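Thread: quick sanity check before group meeting

JM: Hey all, I'm pulling together slides for Thursday and realized we never actually wrote out the predicted structure for the chain we discussed last week. Dropping the sequence here so it's in one place. If anyone has concerns about the input, flag it before I start.
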Amino acid sequence: MPKISAVIITYNEEMFIGKCLASLEGVADEIVVVDSFSTDNTEEICKKYNVRFVKHAFEGFRDQKNYALKLATYKNILSLDADEALSDKLRDSILSIKDNWKYDSYVFNRRNNYCGKWIQYSGWYPDRQLRLFHSEDGTWGELNLHEKFILSNGSSIGKLKGDLLHWPFTSIEDHNEKMGRYALIGAEEFHKAGKKSYFFTPYLHGFWGFFRTYIINGGFLDGRNGYMICSLYSKSAFNKYKHLRQLNKNRSSSQ
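JM (edit): ok, ran it. Output follows.
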């Protein structure tokens, strides 16, 4: 039976890491946690489970995950974030293919929880994720935020039943703070890639972000939570391109 290495990166994840690790029991043959020097109880919680705990300075989400892949003993990788956990149905699906691995990689749906409620629309579901794969068939790529595992050409992809459960924000305040931080990181990544932002660009992306998630993706059907999710997404999109415009100006003035 092929063995699976579960790989997780962490930083101050004491709220959800226990739930994440517990969901992996009986599924993962090895759990590797790469921690960015947490100052809370993350390490103590991890030690209650049979994990390999490695400290490594944070290099960005993409690069941190690629570093973690190198530490895995087995080539079959199950990659989770610390605020995610396998649902019972997804656990069963993974167990059912361990001795019948037909595809190079597998995707499954992620279900996101917001302020205690599971979100059905707002662009948050089904939120398909590729998280079960052979490490030699690709690499974590794209930006160092909202990174994706990029498969090599010709790799086959299967679909598993069950949801990956996700608790991305603990409160509206937490959501607002993280989206502000992500806007800065996104602007810096875009700037490195040579992207431009003009006077109208932040407004265009802010408007489109809200319209797409609230109207096209049905965020209005999620009630008040949907409105908050879509509004903060719009605000983050606006701020990302606002920051990018300032970075563009700074570069021009220094030349």
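AS: nice. The helical segments are 17-23, 42-46, 61-71, 88-97, 172-192, 201-216, 223-254. Residues 172-254 form one domain.
JM: adding both to the slides.
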